[in-house]
Amino acid sequence: MSRSSAPFPVLAARLQKDPARRHMSNAQKKKQSQAKSRAVREAEAEKLAAQQWAEIDKIAEASVDLKETRERWREIDQIKTAANMSMKEKGEAFKRLNSGTHLTDEMIQDIIKFFVGCEHLSPFKKQQLKAAP
Asked: Is the whole-model pTM more than 0.70?
């Protein structure tokens, strides 16, 4: 009687797909499997990084000028740390400061939430966290 792989159809199918696996030790098969899964994880990480950089590029493109942006954030910090202003006054001062700027409405709302104590991150940090898994 000849040896047949009929009782083990899954094994036979696997060996037909990759005949080199027949001569591999279990450790080699495990290494190969780990390498494949690592490659998949790395590809997913690269895809996520590309998405994050795309978001950062959108923010950078929305910025009119780096110097102007830095000055604006300094003014925002001054408003945020002003001890003699109420939260409502801080929100209004922020709206006046950012009327007609490059900041989106979503960013403005996030910063206003920061003023009332609901948000502890800058919009840029929040973007990074949204993109992170």
From this structure: no
- Of 99, 96, 98, 120, which Cα lies nearest the Cα of 110? 120
- How far from each other are the two terminal CA atoms of the chain, in whole angstroms? 56
The domain in which residue 31 lies consists of 9-59
Q: Looking at the structure, tell me whether residues 71 and 113 fall in a common domain.
A: yes
Q: What pLDDT, on a 0 to 100 scale, did the predictor assign at position 103? A: 62
Query: 116: Cβ–Cβ under 8 A, 6 or more apart, which residues?
Result: 87, 91
Q: Is the four-CA dihedral 104, 109, 113, 116 of positive or negative sign?
A: positive
Residues 127 and 68 in one domain: yes
Q: Does 42 share its domain with 76?
A: no
* Tokens at 95, concatenated: 């709206």
> Rounded CA gap, 70 and 64, in Å?
11
pLDDT at 49: 79
pLDDT block averages, 10 residues each, the chain of length 133: 56 65 78 89 83 73 63 72 73 69 65 56 54 57
Q: Is residue 3 part of a domain?
A: no
1 lies in a domain?
A: no
Q: Are 112 and 94 in contact (CB under 8 A)?
A: yes
